[in-house]
Every structure is written in C-alpha cells, then in structure tokens.
C-alpha cells in the first residue's frame, strides 16, 4: 500500500513560472538591498512621500526591536499613515487586475500549490517566532503565491511588488522610515516543498531566530528534537500529537503507549504484510500500514493513517483512504 496521507509528493504544476516563484519563496540568499530599497521608495513616491530611511534587521522577529509600539487603531485617521496608504494601493492594484482578467483573486492550480506552501507553511512558522503583531507589514518573498498567478507586466506598481518579492524578506513601511528584514539563512522542506526538518529547525535566520516544522505545520522544538510518549499523550492539540508520534515512529509509540489493538488483517495490496488498526486517544483510530515501495536502505517503512473512530475493520479503514469500499479495496493489485 502507498501512502494517501498527504506526505507523498503531490502532482502539481511544474512549469518554469511556478518553479521560479517557488525558488523565490524558499530563497535563503542575502537580500538585494539596493533593489529592494528602490522599490520601496517608488511605493512611498506613489503616496506622495520622499524615500524613507531604511533600517535592516536580521529577521522578522528582530523587527520588533526597532518598530515603535503598535498604536491603537483609529478609523478616523488611520488612512493617513503610509502603511495604510500602501495597503490601499495594493488593494487598488488587485482590483484592477481582476477587472482586466489578469488575476481572479482565487488561486489557480499553480497559485493554489504555492499558497499552501507559503501561507499555510512558511508564514505561520515565521509568525510563531515573532512577539505578537507588529502592525501593517508585507512579506516580500512570501507574496509569491498571488504574484505567480498574475500576468500583467504593464500595470503600474506591479513591477515594484514583483521586485520586492524577488529581492527581500518581510518589511514594514512607516512614516519617514522602513524596516526591512533579511531572508532566512536556512530553509528545509519536504518532498512537497512544505517546511520540514526531522533533525532540527526547519527555518533559521542570521540572528539565531528559528522555527521547527513537521511537513508544513509549525511545531514546538520538543516535537522534533525530544518527542516522548508522555508529552504526546498529554498534548492537547491533536495535530501536535500526530506530528510528535510520527517523529518518534508509530511502531515505537504504540508499543510504549500500549495503544489498544482493534484488529489486524492481511493487506491485499501488499502481499506478505498486514494492516493494523488501533484505538488511538479516544478520538480517532490509527491504521498502521507498510509501504509498498522499498526504502533506499532496503526496508519498508510502516506509517500511520488517521481513520474514523467508528471503523473497526482494517480493510474498511484502508479502503476509506482510497475512497473505496472494503470489497473493492480487497481486489486491488499491488501498489508501489
């Protein structure tokens, strides 16, 4: 049986454009400071302001040391700030793109793939390193998901936005000055380009700020570096439990946690191997299966799939992961 769990590489648009924007989203090269500053100055000019003073920091988290404390939001005068006016310019740009048919507002297959990588993986992980909200700011290279869907090089201000996504990390415009953050110094991803590292931090910045992630989900350090059965069983968040148990290894976990075994059955799609269904945490069941493909070291990996709490038959649980009935699953040929 092969894994339909979301950890395998998905079929995505591998066009040169998609790959180009993905490379920018995952880049850990030093920022092109002169180019980024020039683009920001042009955005300031569009609001009728002179170029700001620039303060470069080593990470988004370090931006908190130079940004003023966030003021109380006041509707009657907030529109006068440069950050609000740049936000209005971007909103107007997107509206014009929609009107021309150059951008739909909803991600395409290409943008949707990048959106998952950027908005559901990279951005949450970086946000987890920051001390609360820093007010209106922009994510530079992590604007790649929506820019990948745009094809309108002649539209005013789009060039500046594209330039920033290709030249810098996160940035925060303020009246008279702008805080610019360097890109990360290391980025680790899985086969789906989701932030992931099973040995240490998945993303690191020059000041030492870092975040851990497991297949796209930001997790505390212990999940990656110190997973153990007690912490897993006492963790309230289900996603973290699964991440930590996968990191520890499902066979190790079910053995050490004495997880109740519901039933076993031969796997018809993987002769010689079985399906094991466990009662997991009283909320979901766990189906342990052996991969049909041999690993590089010659072994076959056993991995865990979540199944419905009411399922008591391993064949039925396995069939559900393929959208099949148990009798249909039983007739499948061997999978790789």
What does this structure look like?
This protein is an alpha+beta fold. 35% of the residues lie in helices and 15% in strands. The chain is built from 12 helices and 11 strands. The chain has helices spanning 16-25, 33-46, 82-100, 109-127, 144-147, 158-167, 221-225, 229-234, 238-248, 250-256, 314-321, 326-329, and strands spanning 53-57, 171-174, 177-181, 186-187, 203-204, 210-214, 217-219, 261-266, 274-280, 284-290, 302-307. The strands form 3 sheets. The protein has a 4-stranded antiparallel beta sheet with strand order 4-5-6-7. A 4-stranded antiparallel beta sheet has the order 8-9-10-11, sandwiched between helices. A 3-stranded mixed beta sheet has the order 1-3-2. A hairpin with a 5-residue loop joins strand 5 and strand 6 (210-214). Helix 2 runs antiparallel to helix 6 (158-167). The radius of gyration is 24 Å and the shape is elongated. The termini are close together. The model is unreliable at 1-12 and 71-76 (pLDDT under 50).
